[in-house]
Fold:
Amino acid sequence: MVSYIVFFTIIGIIWYWWSSVSAYEVAYKVAKAYCLKLNLQFLDDTLDAVKVRPCRHPKGFVQLCRTYEFEFSSDGDNRYTGYINLSGNAFETIDLGAYKTP
Structure:
């Protein structure tokens, strides 16, 4: 019985890691492209996961929704924080908040 618990725990950890890597890649590409489109500097080339929670897909099943935080600059002097939300591995929203335009 214990071996089943260990086996499924390891499988769950591998699934979560694999899902997280895929979601990070999607969020990174979307955030970088969005900053490029708005002529903003995508700083540090990184995202930070700030929230992971279960949510419901429109078809009814449960999936993980993630929120990532990134920094950008509009003028090269100031750093601003943006957020990108994913539902599963699908992009949902991006929020840049208020920032100074050059």
Notes: The longest helix spans residues 2-37. The first strand starts at residue 41 and ends at 42.
